[in-house]
Model the fold of this input.
Amino acid sequence: MAQLAPFVIPAFKKHTATVIWAHGLGDTGRGWLPIAENFKRCGKFEEVAFIFPNAPNIPITLNSGMRMPGWYDIVSFNDIAQQQDQPGIHKSRDYFHSFIKAEIDKGIPSSRIVLGGFSQGGSISIFAGLTSPFPLAGIFGLSSYLLLGDSLPSLLTPEIRAVNSSTPIFMGHGDVDPLVKVEWGQETVKVLKRLGWKVDFNVYKGLAHSADAKEIDDLEKWLEEILPAQG
Done:
């Protein structure tokens, strides 16, 4: 089956910024459309286009090899660093970099582009954002974790660091997440700060592997700060 085209909610006024929002394992971009639709109903982000890509259907080892939408294979959730799918991660990184380049080619400055997502989508967004050859407005990950932590420093060449070292990062995590443990998010923040990034990390009491209204409200405020309307 061919990979589905992204879902897009266009800017209601002059298009000056773009948010690329990646879904989690087994989901599609459609699952996150209501959040952007609600932003628009409330008169928020009228200059912003929201793009919700759809992951390809790939065999997932954790799912007994059955195919499902995924940005990379997952072997186990027992250990954040266990047998990560480097080829799949790099392939999806390149895919998201191509999205960024396509928006730039439309006339949107990379400094007005945000890359983020939930769970697996947030994890690939963090990885692709940190290694982006273009300076981004921001990166966010909800219930996410760091990919290829051991090899990441070698990918952060002086040129890449010069481009993205000041890119703001927002992370949100439920404190009772049974799947992507909050400790993984906390460890990710430690590594990112050690590498020089500023991270706004928020923990939500009683939240499992999901997003809630408070988390989305906090993300909305963060987006408003980094993507102010240009008029």
